[in-house]
Design a protein that fits this description.
Distance between the termini: 18 Å
Number of helices: 5
Helix content: under 10%
Structural class: mainly beta
Radius of gyration: 30 Å
Oligomer: single chain
């Protein structure tokens, strides 16, 4: 939960041969760490972070205790693992869990909405890892499986372990790794703890919208105690956060963003259009965690965990869409280095946006673990868990312009390319003038599948539920005398997960006449901007040259508009349900002994995983202007065998060679497993021949029979731990990936049941040409590839070099990863993995002594394929530029006197003001997206009673 127990010099942690077999966490994260600087004179000369107790124990806290605890977890694990440990109760080393994990070797975070949210491990994105809470697989409030880590308050966790090699007892392991969030066990704590903390946040980029915020807060409290002669423990934590984010964002308009135009100097790239926005987000999150632990004797141990978080985020977006080169020829063109440097446009229309988006989510997680000592050497463990997430979005768009469908006043716009690749956009129209601007459909975008509608706004209201239940039983014991084969573990796990998605969308048009928002029925094409909806302060897009724009309350505009249900097939086919029933059996032999005079630990094991996978949904199509729906459902069953072997040999004192060989799998995106289809019928294609691409029938959707990604893995790690603290490690890894999901796969499909939708004459032509066989675009396991890489890590307290530098230290890592993926849809092209940066480097320098602490962390990652939400919230991949982010913190804890127990901490995030930039065409000059978040500053107080 919220705590990190003090490190005690006299205690030695047990050997964690079973990383997650016991979700109580006893074998991995609950052992106390050794002192940060276990030097001979440590007790004689304790400093502020290593103080002596009455019993003479050395108690280490703060940054050095955190690093020491993480190092001890790594050292004692037979697996290849990296960890982040809390420095103290409610105090992970960074602002969020994702920030902390992004400091680990080979782990990177992608910023979403200004926050570190999605993790890539060893170059494999969030779809290739799994997340556990105390050893139990978790649901997510996201659209798919990838966990959005900002749903978890960081105060709730004592350790976060990233397992990079698997074990047979590690259920639901990922291909890239497994992130295990570990909470505190109250019976392991020495004394009662009551801790409260408060922290303020300040966003230096400024309030980008008048109804946004730039100041936030975070408060938390924790209570830990033991009762009944230390046989019953209670840990309770509460946390509340209100965190603002403000940023400038820019997007090149159109599919590619940069078409070419003929000029006297030859063809040159030109900006197709631009969508500059300013955005203000406000995240509110409230949560609680509780752990009850009961151990009346050595024969029985029971632990109950409960976690709840409520998540609410409001986003306010305002901006203008400028369709330029896609709609009109430029004048006054100046070309430089193959790009149009400046030009003048007079587009037919521009679209102003005042949008409001709200996400509401609740996450519940419960787990009950019971451990029975059958004999002195045999234990039966039974674990039951349930987690559920519910999320509802309210995604409101409102549009305004000078007139409907390009009939209003036309602007004259001058663009000039800037050094950072963005274009300044200087208009001549005053976009804040309500005598010129009206609520309307400026581009004539509205179309219901058969006829034009007045789309002055649009509303999406998706709802997701994710439910996961599991029951696990395992039996572990020891053999008598079998040499290095010390023991065994056998177990079984059953889980049932169901994710449902329901989408409701509506066209929004002016009230006052017509039906169905259609133009033909007389729906008003525009309405004046109501004075009471206009905000006192206007929004500026000054970062691109637009001085001001219409700034209204979009919820008041929404009240003026008439919603009409969107029943287009592409909207109706989004609804689905996916259910997975998974039976996992496993067995392993535990190795612990000596071989050739060297200490040897490890395991040999196998998992057998049987899956019953099914989906329900609908096939939606449009025939003769009438929408047809058909409810469908189907499923598939399959079995996978996953062997694994791990070995750890202590070749020299405190020097280890760790080896791992395994077969792992991870399930595809849930939306790719849906059965729903969106069918299109185009009579204009009748008579074009037998080529399936020219068929009048086509479809796109999911694949209910999709199988997991699979990977054959080899891992090796060389690790040396220093007597005075710290370690160095060098790790290599290779993955041969099969059954890679190709999202662009197409198969030939027989659409004969749809022939009656055509006229008899058309049917005859289609059948004569065999053109009823069209293309069905659905994902398939038709890709394969390889990944190879290396990581290097050093954790060095400078006292190991000289006592004159006591308190100083560094933690640094670097990794290089190469991947090559080949897809059946385009076998001639080799692609890289989404989320993979070839080079990743992290460095932390710290000082901690006499209650004072300071730390600076720099994170660098090279270019990578970044996934963001594109049109209609569909995922879109573009290359993101390399980025380097600097964070820092400084603090002081009072060690004595009336303020003893009080700690002050100041933090700064993104001191480099690093932008997030994506580009297309392999050319960094073709900027597709740009976001600038500024620097966040935090000031907090923590008090321990």
């Amino acid at each position: 939960m919220l705590a990190a127990a003090p490190a005690r010099a006299q205690e030695t942690p047990p050997d964690p041969n079973a990383p997650s077999a016991n979700p109580t966490g006893k074998v991995t994260v609950e052992q106390p760490a050794p002192p940060a600087d276990p030097t001979p004179d440590a007790q004689a000369n304790p400093d502020a972070t290593a103080t002596a107790t009455e019993e003479g124990e050395i108690v280490v806290t703060g940054i050095r205790a955190s690093l020491a605890r993480s190092a001890e977890i790594k050292r004692n694990s037979t697996l290849i693992v990296d960890s982040v440990s809390a420095e103290d109760i409610g105090k992970l080393p960074d602002v969020s869990i994702a920030d902390s994990l992004a400091r680990l070797p080979g782990v990177t975070a992608q910023r979403v909405e200004g926050r570190d949210q999605n993790l890539s491990i060893r170059g494999l994105g969030p779809d290739f890892s799994t997340t556990l809470f105390n050893g139990r697989e978790q649901v997510t409030v996201g659209d798919n499986r990838g966990v959005e880590y900002d749903q978890y308050p960081s105060e709730f966790f004592r350790n976060v372990n990233v397992y990079k090699s698997p074990d047979a007892s590690l259920i639901a392991a990922g291909i890239s790794g497994t992130v295990d969030l570990r909470s505190l066990r109250p019976l392991d704590q020495r004394d009662r703890s009551v801790v409260v903390s408060a922290r303020g946040q300040y966003n230096d980029i400024g309030k980008r919208n008048p109804d946004g915020k730039r100041i936030g807060y975070r408060v938390s409290g924790a209570f830990v105690d033991k009762f009944a002669d230390d046989t019953f423990g209670v840990a309770i934590g509460l946390a509340a956060t209100e965190a603002p984010t403000n940023y400038d964002k820019y997007e090149a308009w159109g599919d590619a963003g940069y078409p070419t135009v003929a000029t006297p100097q030859g063809d040159a790239f030109i900006l197709g259009g631009a969508k500059p926005y300013v955005q203000s987000n406000l995240l509110k999150r409230y949560g609680g965690v509780a752990t009850l632990e009961w151990q009346p004797s050595d024969k029985f141990h029971s632990t109950f965990d409960a976690l709840y978080t409520h998540f609410n985020e409001v986003q306010r977006l305002r901006g203008i869409e400028f369709p330029l080169a896609y709609n009109v020829a430029p004048t006054n063109v100046v070309v430089r280095d193959g790009f149009v440097q400046s030009a003048t446009f007079q587009p037919a229309y521009t679209v102003q946006r005042n949008d409001y988006q709200e996400r509401e989510a609740d996450l519940f997680s419960f787990g009950w673990n019971n451990d029975f000592a059958v004999t002195d050497t045999t234990h039966l463990n039974i674990d039951a868990a349930w987690s559920r997430a519910e999320r509802t979005d309210f995604l409101l768009e409102t549009y305004s312009g000078t007139g409907y469908n390009g009939t209003g006043a036309r602007d004259t716009i001058n663009i000039t390319r800037q050094d950072n690749g963005l274009y300044s956009i200087v208009p001549t129209i005053n976009y804040a003038d309500t005598n010129v601007i009206r609520i309307t459909d400026p581009g004539g975008w509205g179309y219901n599948g058969t006829t034009a509608v007045v789309q002055a706004g649009f509303l999406n209201r998706p709802k997701f539920t994710d439910d996961l239940k599991s029951l696990r039983a395992s039996l572990a014991g020891e053999f008598g005398d079998l040499g290095v084969v010390k023991g065994y573990e056998v177990g079984a796990n059953y889980s049932q997960r169901e994710k449902r998605a329901a989408f409701t969308s509506s066209f929004l048009c002016p009230k006052g006449g017509g039906t169905g928002c259609t133009v033909a029925s007389g729906t008003p094409t525009s309405v004046a901007v109501p004075a009471d909806a206009v905000l006192d302060d206007t929004v500026s897009l000054g970062f691109l040259g637009v001085p001001q724009m219409l700034t209204v309350d979009p919820l008041k505009i929404y009240d003026l508009l008439n919603p009409v249900f969107d029943n287009r097939p592409e909207s109706l086919a989004k609804d689905y349900s996916v259910k997975e029933k998974v039976w996992t059996g496993y067995a392993k032999l535990v190795i612990d002994g000596e071989a050739g005079g060297k200490a040897l630990k490890g395991s040999l094991g196998v998992q057998v995983v049987h899956t019953d996978q099914s989906s329900t949904g609908r096939i939606a199509g449009l025939t003769g202007g009438v929408v047809t729906l058909a409810d469908v459902g189907d499923g598939v069953k399959y079995t996978n065998v996953l062997p694994s072997a791990t070995m750890s040999v202590e070749l020299i004192p405190s020097g280890f060679v760790k080896l791992g060989a395994s077969r792992t799998m991870v399930r595809p995106r849930i939306d790719q497993e849906r059965i729903s289809q969106n069918v299109s019928i185009n009579p204009a294609n009748v008579g074009l021949g037998s080529n399936p691409a020219n068929s009048p029938f086509s479809s796109e959707g999911g694949n209910f029979a999709l199988r997991p990604y699979k990977s054959t893995n080899v891992d090796v790690s060389l690790e040396k731990y220093f007597p005075s603290g710290g370690y160095v490690a060098l790790t290599g890894y290779f993955k041969s990936i099969s059954d890679y999901v190709d999202a662009n796969n197409s198969v030939i499909y027989d659409f004969s049941p749809l022939l009656p939708s055509l006229t008899p004459a058309q049917q005859a032509i289609v059948q004569a040409q065999n053109a009823q066989f069209g293309l069905f675009r659905n994902p398939a396991n038709s890709g394969e590839g390889e990944l190879i890489g290396a990581e290097a890590t050093v954790s060095l307290p400078f006292r190991a070099i000289t006592t004159a530098l006591d308190g100083f230290g560094v933690f640094a890592s670097g990794s290089y990863t190469y991947s090559a993926i080949r897809l059946a849809s385009n076998p001639a092209r080799t692609i890289t993995l989404p989320g993979l940066s070839d080079w990743v480097m992290n460095g932390t320098a710290y000082f901690e002594k006499n209650g004072f602490q300071a730390r600076a962390t720099y994170r660098y990652r090279s270019d990578f394929l970044a996934e963001v939400r594109g049109l209609s919230a569909s995922p879109e991949l573009n290359t993101a530029q390399s980025e380097g982010i600097l964070d820092a913190q400084i603090g002081y804890e009072f060690q004595s006197g009336p303020l003893q127990g009080l700690a002050i901490l100041a933090q700064a995030k993104n001191l480099t003001d690093q932008e997030f930039v994506q580009y297309v065409g392999g050319d960094e000059r073709q900027v597709r997206r740009y976001q600038r978040y500024g620097t966040d500053y935090y000031l907090g107080l923590t008090y321990r009673f």
